[in-house]
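Deliverable D4.2, example record:
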Amino acid sequence: MPPHVFIALRLSKWEKEIVEEVLGSLAEIDYLKDPPDPYRGIEVAEAVIAFRLPNEAIEKARKLKFVQSP
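Output generated by the structure prediction step:
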């Protein structure tokens, strides 16, 4: 079974709906909830998404460079 990938995001209500809709078709979303949440250290996030990806996708993601845009 592939490992969990956790993403903590600050999202508005409509953004959460979009993320859930898009990721729901690509990966299994195990958790999407407003705080308080049981995952220590990320309580400040408005949305926490835990999903599973194939190991090949995780390996490809390690090679990505992330750029924050305004």
